[in-house]
Amino acid sequence: QVGALVAVDNTFLTPVYQKPLELGADFVIHSTTKYINGHSDVIGGVVITKTEAHAEELAWWGNCIGATGTPFDSYMTLRGIRTLGARMRVHEESSQHVLNYLQQQALVAKIYHPSLPDHPGHEIA
User: Do residues 74 and 19 share a domain?
Assistant: First the structure.
């Protein structure tokens, strides 16, 4: 309404589970060091935008201050992207096992997890 730009850190959901540009964000940020690379052998990050003008400005700043990855880091990150979907499915399955276990524990009073029907964000999860 007031023209503010919206940036979303999508590091932990990854593009497998959420695509913020499709939800109206102007920028998406990922720490590629985490799930996208997935092998703990690269330090990096990425900013994605939906407009050519913002992309050109980000590229200019990246070149100007040297905030760009090496070709080898890019190669290693691409290697991780190839297995991202499979790795995220295993994470999801594992979290469901933990969730099922916790639901059976008398000492656990409340569980907040988007896959549960009583979670406030369940409909959009």
Answer: yes
